[in-house]
Give the backbone structure.
Amino acid sequence: MNQKNEDGYELWLRYRRVDNPDRLRQYRQAISRATVLGASETAEIIRRELGRALPALLDRAVPLSEQRPTGNALVVGTAGDLKPLGVSIPQVQRQNLGEEGFLIRSHQAGGDTWIVITGNAETTLLTGAFHFLRLLQTHQNIDNLNILSRPRIRHRLLAHWDNLDGSIERGYAGQSLWQWAELPETIDPRYHDYARACASIGLNGACLNNVNAQAQSLTTAYLEKVAALTDVFRPYGMRVYLSPVFSAPMQLGGLPTADPRDPAVTKWWQKKVDEIYRLIPDFGGFQVKANSEGQPGPQDYGANHDDGANMLAEALAPHGGILLWRAFVYDVSVDQDRAKCANKEFEPLDGKFRPNVLVQAKNGPIDFQPREPFHPLFGAMPQTPLALEVQITQEYLGQSIHLVYLADMWKEVLDADTYARGPGSTVAKIVDGSVFGHNTSCIVGVANTGSDRNWCGHHFSQANWYVFGRLAWDHQLSTETITEEWVRLTWSNDPLVLQSIKPMLHGSWPACIDYMTPLGLHHIMQEGHHYGPDPAFNSAPRQDWNCVYYHRADREGIGFDRSSSGSNAVGQYHPPLREQFGNLTTCPEKYLLWFHHVPWTHRLQSGRTLWEEMQHRYDEGVAFVEKMVDIWQGLQATIDSQRHQHVSQRLAQQLENARKWREVCLNYFGQFVSGEDT
Amino acid sequence: MNQKNEDGYELWLRYRRVDNPDRLRQYRQAISRATVLGASETAEIIRRELGRALPALLDRAVPLSEQRPTGNALVVGTAGDLKPLGVSIPQVQRQNLGEEGFLIRSHQAGGDTWIVITGNAETTLLTGAFHFLRLLQTHQNIDNLNILSRPRIRHRLLAHWDNLDGSIERGYAGQSLWQWAELPETIDPRYHDYARACASIGLNGACLNNVNAQAQSLTTAYLEKVAALTDVFRPYGMRVYLSPVFSAPMQLGGLPTADPRDPAVTKWWQKKVDEIYRLIPDFGGFQVKANSEGQPGPQDYGANHDDGANMLAEALAPHGGILLWRAFVYDVSVDQDRAKCANKEFEPLDGKFRPNVLVQAKNGPIDFQPREPFHPLFGAMPQTPLALEVQITQEYLGQSIHLVYLADMWKEVLDADTYARGPGSTVAKIVDGSVFGHNTSCIVGVANTGSDRNWCGHHFSQANWYVFGRLAWDHQLSTETITEEWVRLTWSNDPLVLQSIKPMLHGSWPACIDYMTPLGLHHIMQEGHHYGPDPAFNSAPRQDWNCVYYHRADREGIGFDRSSSGSNAVGQYHPPLREQFGNLTTCPEKYLLWFHHVPWTHRLQSGRTLWEEMQHRYDEGVAFVEKMVDIWQGLQATIDSQRHQHVSQRLAQQLENARKWREVCLNYFGQFVSGEDT
């Protein structure tokens, strides 16, 4: 046992001694002491963080003070606080920083060099401090620093699908972090650790309860609990959001209706929102799932999404709150192709929403599959800011058992060009508001956190939380950069570890697609829990709850014809995508069976027939998991045994599962393939 | 913040540097190195424990080896392993040690002094090692050691009322520790830490699932999970037990009946038990709740408890397993007084049980109330070994919110004289088998552990786990001794801390009785969850589910007449207790309203009327909680802020609750008291 056992609780904030002698010397020379200006709770948190990190990283005392330092030092303070120390930040740079940006700059103070971390608000100093500590943790050069960083998206949220009874819908890492029964009296120290982790990667909000919401969460008793959590989160720069249930005026207010056009209903919501803001002055807003999968909504009363959203938005507007209205709808009467429903319902409403409404779409048009083409709503509603929702928790991707790194999936979506205003209209730029000039923007990640000691169930699932935060802050960062950071922070700066884990991470998502749903297949998971394959499933009461609805395998071939001769879902994409996707010969093979029903004998770029390619892909997927098992085995002497063993156990299950996927899918699909096709 | 924050996970195994200079010098001189003989997993665990504890306690390196040491040293090995080193343990002492005893003895080895820890089995060495470390942790003198300790009770179990879905019936510290969904593939390191904690206080078994059992726990899939847990627990000397549901042959075996006299049923159980022992060769046995609170049992088929128990016992006997058959029954058709039911059902069966059956009774005849007289079954079944069940989790005593130390409650029960074979026939001696000469014995504590980081919800609830283990090992230990140990281990050896916390602990149980149910009152808690007062509750369908059934307050007075003129429950106790309890003037006031309906104007020893005394007791109870708040406040500078704050928050709630109890009970009972009585 070479390394001290770790349980994963520390996440990427491990602050181990810098074991690179040159860097250690540089850091010790550069940081003989640290000064944090300011008296706020946030300043106190920064002091605590530096007091914990610097002595551990530098392996020696680093005096902390609130005074002007002598010697080379780290100095943290707002531009205003820095002035008396003779550090002035030019006005243009202050403007450039905006509300949330930070600046890390080397500064000559007489014969000494200070590393100054500054920004316009104290919570941004915290973000900057974490950024700086990350430089040390990952052994970066800190000479002549001049880093200005600010987020490209305004609201960067984790959405917790946590129920009030402590269970988590699609949670695979234990129970909810929120101890509702104990709040507001008892403040679990883990609330602080949660907020700290979020702040360290640039997140600034959390929606606390499940979008399949219970009215109870809006009672005064629960709002007081929420307020207690908010008091913990506030100094970390984290704001709190809630998911209200649309029928709350009936359940809590005793009204006979929840019709958004009814003045009593409007008034009830206004009063409720006013109450929330009395308890939580910086409340972030609501995230609403309405008329979706059985949730109540305005359509229950003949009103429409805009009526519902605007009513709530008007209640929130005077307080500065935003309204996230989810576009995850698939009413079979709207269209027989589930993938088309959201656009058909929402496109006509473009321009009808209040300014503080964001329509929130998932990354793809179905539901968090291993791979989907981007959601065609992005680019289809120029007058409406669109929030992007991705799922950090791996509902369909092996949950907390499979090692699947989602960075490249999200990057594929963010970088996807919608052509909404010509080339370069990427999803990322739709979401950050730059394509259509929106001032507000939001990205939401469905959290994978829970009460498990390692937060996420799988040590590697922490990577998905990490990369979500980093991409939410700056979608222009390369995934390679973020991956390198995370591995160094979480595992080690040892080159062997880096060379081993980075390819595991980047290969894991393609492998998962291959052993689950290659070539555009989707939604062939077992019913309900969505773990494991069940392509034969065909007994659900609704067509689009069955696996056969999605893959449509028959004697001729396999795939969902969404071309113009099929459901014409391709028509919801801008040119040239609709043509590219709609044509079997130009459609990217990764989306082939998503958009086309393809003959088994169809030849792919590899020269293999479709059926041969499918077999090949399943084999490749399994082979990569085998490879991960080997790579990981090779790290046994380098990684602490507690974490190593835990991951080994998970990888063994993943391998067994991957083989099962291959077996079940090839057996099932194979029965449609005639001898001639093979 | 003077002390480093702690989250309570380490329990009483904190191994902080010995901060008493004289002791530190003594310890360093006495332990220059340590030798652990043997190659078993247990020997490895002992090495790991010493390797963790000694360098931390002594604040310097303590070389560990498996060789004969030179210099003063700690030497751990079985008598057989010690022989080659020239240490011989006399045969008579080896016999005296029995299977589970340990010996810690100073030994002269040439010019060196060794501290030798030995015993007949390796798991006893582990118990001995923990005992020795406790001496260091609590700053005891270790010169000329000669400690022989062996348990007075054979089976010392925690009973986990854990459901397979992860919830815990009457659990207030999070979810189940057992991650059934992840087992057997994933072994949570916490399983080791759980077994280690149990072993450190002398426990040797755990019943893993709720007595309100699910058949699923006996399926092969679940047994494989149980086997994986057992593999972790085994080297710590912890055996595993299960709670089977009596109807399992129908649910799992597809049989038309579970009648214990049906050969097919008998055979099913035999095969199931054989399967269990194939997977778990050292399986401990079953704990059964049958014909109790709706659970199926032999009476469903016209058979009786002995038929059911014996059938299961016969299946277990060839493998050495025991059967714990719970006597927690209260069928209203047996007796109108719930307190009498168990004796009426079980006394007639004395002598009818197989030798490996133990009838398991709770400490009192109702249900884990703040205070009950001992259960009259103890002493009433001389031919049957009786197991004692106490509840560590505080179902009726403020759950994980109230600081209530249960040591003195259990000690009161253990020391209670049943007079079954004349004076001195204490409950403890009935249970340990010495009164009636039984070879087998068992004590069961319903666990208060859960997934909360601090294991028990409240830092002080850890004390109840600790003291249960220590008393299970040796019921002759004084609670003062155990209390002093626990405070030193868990909090500090600082005299201020000791002087502050010890009186809090010892005063907390009397205070809880006073602010909840003084003078023999019982079962006036709110329905279902049993938290908070509801003395007016009278709407349950069964009389004995109502609070008014238990307190019987009216214009005349209050209390349940169980004297010979009432239900004559006193008749179930041996003389002289039946007379003492049955007479209003000789009945101990602590049991007054348990056994008597007492006029409001009745004068107590204090000179106060009953009603005045009740008011006084409620006041006293609340006053003590106020005092605890003050005492705790005084420790702010001495205790780490994380634990201090958590306990402060709990104490604030306890105070609010205690005041509520007083208000609700005095308001409610006061309405029966006329002006003349007050």
Chain A touches chain B at residues 5, 7, 166, 174-175, 185-187, 189-190, 451, 453, 642, 645-646, 649-650, 652-653 (CB under 8 Å). Residues 512-560+597-673 of chain A form a domain with the Alpha-d-glucuronidase, C-terminal Domain fold (CATH 3.90.1330.10).
